[in-house]
Amino acid sequence: MSEQCSGNCGACGEECAERTESQDLHESPHELSKIKKVIAVVSGKGGVGKSLVTSMLAVTMNRRGYHSAVLDADVTGPSIPKMFGLKEKASGSDVGIFPVRTKTGIDIMSINLLLPNDTDPVVWRGPLIAGTVKQFWTDVIWGDVDYMFIDMPPGTGDVPLTVFQSIPVDGIIVVTSPQELVSMIVAKAVKMAEMMNIPILGLVENLSYFKCPDNGKEYRIFGESHIDEIAKEHNLQVLAKLPVDPDLSLNCDKGLIELFVGSWLDEAADLLDSKVEK
Ligand SMILES: Nc1ncnc2c1ncn2[C@@H]1O[C@H](COP(=O)(O)OP(=O)(O)OP(=O)(O)O)[C@@H](O)[C@H]1O
């Protein structure tokens, strides 16, 4: 038994004689799904741009010739369908539910693709929300997917916990912004990832700076960034720093995220590139 044993075998990766429950609680995906890599995108709180980064990663990998998918696990604040301008609802058959395909061929599943109205609030308790996310994995016919990006609910509550326990996530990307309590958020993410035995692939700082179109100067409008020191402290890589870009918010609002211009996520994409063969 490890000296630091908490008695919670489900949250520990150690193999020891005292283990009381099976380590692998992962559910199998639908029998018609073959998903090569699953990447969870997490943040400490809402509104820092987690869904935007999830969408941009899916678009970037799709542009590189991979088949990307997005599982929107942010059930109470689903913003993925809107960013991709999806109007149609998901359909199903006796065999399972079909994701909705975007204009450029990215497959999406989100609670907003199942509810009659986009504006219907999801006023559900944690277990029901977590069960829905699990079903997005087990009951959706994803087909062949190279990269599935999961837009996680913010924080470290019971829904993220169930997602990490039931879906075999290969890596985590943490999105932060300069005005948050970044060091605490990153430390929490690192601890959660250790408990779940999932590697953190790196950090993305959103809203990092604003580049003035008139003089080309960069302004730190949300404060100085500390992401480099924090990354070093935890031996993590900073994969990208995204500016505050009015074109990005316009693309989000118009459902045209597939048209974004910018190479900010190239380093993250290079890292992912190395993980899957086309
Ligand atoms: N770098 C950016 N430049 C311009 N606008 C941005 C940027 N990042 C985010 N936004 C705007 O902020 C909105 C919120 O971002 P997003 O939905 O990705 O946050 P979130 O962290 O997923 O929030 P929640 O968890 O509440 O869903 C976006 O729709 C977009 O309009």
TrEMBL record:
<keyword id="KW-0479">Metal-binding</keyword>
<keyword id="KW-0067">ATP-binding</keyword>
<dbReference type="GO" id="GO:0005524">
    <property type="term" value="F:ATP binding"/>
</dbReference>
<dbReference type="GO" id="GO:0046872">
    <property type="term" value="F:metal ion binding"/>
</dbReference>
<feature type="binding site">
    <location>
        <begin position="44"/>
        <end position="51"/>
    </location>
    <ligand>
        <name>ATP</name>
    </ligand>
</feature>
<keyword id="KW-0547">Nucleotide-binding</keyword>
<dbReference type="GO" id="GO:0016887">
    <property type="term" value="F:ATP hydrolysis activity"/>
</dbReference>
<dbReference type="InterPro" id="IPR044304">
    <property type="entry name" value="NUBPL-like"/>
</dbReference>
<keyword id="KW-0378">Hydrolase</keyword>
<dbReference type="InterPro" id="IPR033756">
    <property type="entry name" value="YlxH/NBP35"/>
</dbReference>
<keyword id="KW-0411">Iron-sulfur</keyword>
<keyword id="KW-0408">Iron</keyword>
<dbReference type="GO" id="GO:0016226">
    <property type="term" value="P:iron-sulfur cluster assembly"/>
</dbReference>
<dbReference type="Pfam" id="PF10609">
    <property type="entry name" value="ParA"/>
</dbReference>
<dbReference type="GO" id="GO:0140663">
    <property type="term" value="F:ATP-dependent FeS chaperone activity"/>
</dbReference>
<comment type="subunit">
    <text>Homodimer.</text>
</comment>
<protein>
    <recommendedName>
        <fullName>Iron-sulfur cluster carrier protein</fullName>
    </recommendedName>
</protein>
<dbReference type="GO" id="GO:0051539">
    <property type="term" value="F:4 iron, 4 sulfur cluster binding"/>
</dbReference>
<dbReference type="InterPro" id="IPR019591">
    <property type="entry name" value="Mrp/NBP35_ATP-bd"/>
</dbReference>
<comment type="similarity">
    <text>Belongs to the Mrp/NBP35 ATP-binding proteins family.</text>
</comment>
<dbReference type="InterPro" id="IPR027417">
    <property type="entry name" value="P-loop_NTPase"/>
</dbReference>
<comment type="function">
    <text>Binds and transfers iron-sulfur (Fe-S) clusters to target apoproteins. Can hydrolyze ATP.</text>
</comment>
